[in-house]
Structure formats: C-alpha cells, structure tokens
Amino acid sequence: MKLIILIFTIIGLALCAPDEVPSGDQYDTDNLLIVRDCEEEKDLPAAEKAEWWDWKVPANPTECYIDCIFQKYGWLSGEGGSIVNSAVEASYAAVGHSNPSLASCNPSKSGCSKADELYACLLNADGQKFKDAFDGKRDAK
Question: Source organism's superkingdom (predicted)?
C-alpha cells in the first residue's frame, strides 16, 4: 500500500512540476550568457523561459525580450531597427552553417515585435541551423 501511495505521489509531483527552466551550466556560450542577461533584464517568468528554451514562441511574449537578445548579438541595429545581415551570416558561419533564410524573412511588424517575427521566421525556415547560430554552438545531434 505504501508503495502505491509513493508511486502516485511521484506521478503527481511530476505532473504538477513546471516545465524545465535552464540551469546555470546550460548558459555555456557567450550567446547564451547574453540570453541569460536579457532574461534577467526583462524579468522573464519561468513558464515563458521554459517555452523559449523549448524553441516555442509564447502566445504573449515578454515585450522586447528577443529584441534585447538580437541587439546584443548585433543582429538588429537599435530597438526594432533594421536587420544586420552580415552579423546574422557571421553567427551562422561561426557554427559551420551558411545561407540564413534572410531573404524570405521580411518582418512586417515594427518596434520590438519585429525581433519576435524574425525569430519565428528563421526558426521555421532554418530549424537547427538557426538554433545553432542562436545558441552559439553546433548541436551534435
């Protein structure tokens, strides 16, 4: 009987636990240290952080979070500014990839929403290549 209670307790805790949020050792590149800085600067809620780390764009993302990252990466010039193609291309090249899908990603939104739109477009168009460039390391998978 005690074993059954223990099993149900463990299952209940697992189901109630929030999505996994990154730990300190997961911020293992310069890019991911920038991500951490922007998470702290924008006071990103844990649930939203877990979505971003799972490569999902939240329904209502924290205002200017991705813009903060892209500016610090040099991918955008100024808040809601223009895309710096050479910086994005350099980030892809640094992890062994080329030809980011910038030509097909023409954000129509303005301000900080432009960064969210660019993030979603590059993630959808380039998949793992974008993830590698964003993280600053090539995924071995």
Answer: Eukaryota
Torsion sign (Cα): 59, 51, 87, 91:
negative
**pLDDT tens per residue, range 97-121:** 999 999 999 899 888 999 999 999 9
The two beta strands, 76-77 and 82-83, are: antiparallel
Residue 41's H or E segment, with its range, is: helix 30-41
Helix 30-41 × helix 128-135 angle, to 10°: 80
* Cα separation, 98 vs 95, whole angstroms: 9
Sign of the C-alpha dihedral computed for residues 56, 62, 66 and 72 taken in this order: negative
